[in-house]
Amino acid sequence: MENKLKNILIIGLGLIGSSMALGIRRDHPNVKLFGLDNEATINTALQNHLIDQAARLDQVTMMDLVILATPIDATFDLLTKISQMNFSHELVLTDTCSTKNEIMIRANQIFNGKNIKFIGGHPMAGSHKSGVNAADVNLFENAYYVLTERNEELQDILSGLHSKFIIVDPKEHDQVTGQVSHFPHIIASSLVQQSNTYSKKHPLVNHLAAGGFRDMTRIAEANSKMWTSVILSNRQEIIERIKDFKGDLDRIIKFIEEKDEIRISEFFDSGKKIRQNMEILKGRGVIPNFYDLFVSVPDEKGVILKILVLLQDISITNIKINEENREDIHGQLQISFKSASDLEQAKEIIEGATDFDIAE
Ligand SMILES: NC(=O)c1ccc[n+]([C@@H]2O[C@H](COP(=O)([O-])OP(=O)(O)OC[C@H]3O[C@@H](n4cnc5c(N)ncnc54)[C@H](O)[C@@H]3O)[C@@H](O)[C@H]2O)c1
Ligand SMILES: O=C(O)C(=O)C[C@]1(C(=O)O)C=C[C@@H](O)C=C1
Prior knowledge:
Blueprint: E1 7-11, H1 15-27, E2 32-36, H2 39-47, E3 53-54, E4 65-68, H3 72-83, E5 91-95, H4 101-110, E6 116-119, E7 121-123, E8 144-147, H5 152-157, E9 164-167, H6 170-201, H7 205-208, H8 211-217, H9 224-232, H10 235-257, H11 261-281, E10 292-297, H12 303-310, E11 316-322, E12 331-337, H13 340-353, E13 357-359
Parallel strand pairs: 1-2, 1-4, 2-3, 4-5, 5-6, 8-9
Antiparallel strand pairs: 7-8, 10-12, 10-13, 11-12
Helix pairs in contact: 3-4, 6-10
């Protein structure tokens, strides 16, 4: 298929826009990539060859595809400005916002009868980091990429992101992401703040916070402006999720007060089973790192290289080093694989060649 989307403008070259630029370039080295952002960001994007050329907003009219990778409030503003422009050919326009319903309602109102094909988009992967320096070509690998409708040419341009397209109704999208993406950010931030308040009375809090606390709170470091926009764009759903959760907390308070051993155990058991079932879904994109092996490694020079050499014939999707604060215990290498069989093979190789502790 000859793709007619040749001149592509990305507005907003932060974490998402710059990572998309790298992904687009991977499969489509010949498209012309333009960028629009503040001067410092554009300079970095040009230096790092993320884009070919800077563009102005009025140059939207000469583009074939425009990707809005901007915060939600800025995206609304840009949608309005673009809807006031005149196009001699059809513009394909998409966004990356974390909410979809309000954006689609607005787009349907303002693009009606215009030469603009708007397709709502949301890559279901990201990070607590932001800005052009966080660009990562593998950010969207194996993650779902939500679109509000199929579009062969757009999907082809985005193929180098290595994500999986899924068509979702905008309202349904906001309900689901409200539960599994937006609400968890509220929980993480509340937990960090509650612990901080408690630490005024109990300073040891700052020392005894360990792996569990770290795993629960990484996303509390996310960009506050972005999350304010997300929450305000999905208010009703998020309020409902919070109220629902309050009910769950009240239920567990009751079990504890009543020393109800069976119900407390059922509570944890149920959580464990549900999460383990979600693990099965990991390969389909619920959680980007799937089939993980945790190798406990001594803090010695060359140890990571040794493991990598051992696994050189197996496809690894990600490696993470979970450092330990204490010097006397081992750090943990988290290695992610594409399949259960790759994981099993890697486990056998490491077990055969080292005495490192391994867990799945
Ligand atoms: N961070 C995530 O995990 C994540 C994941 C998926 C989708 N998203 C969504 O993608 C969008 C971008 O998020 P991000 O994490 O890349 O944010 P970011 O802060 O890293 O990047 C946003 C960029 O947009 C630029 N910008 C803002 N207003 C602009 C304007 N009017 N014109 C041109 N550039 C402008 C900023 O300078 C910045 O470089 C948001 O709508 C967010 O909801 C974020
Ligand atoms: O990994 C993270 O830090 C994220 O929060 C990314 C995350 C999420 O997983 O909920 C957050 C917002 C996006 O719209 C999509 C993905």
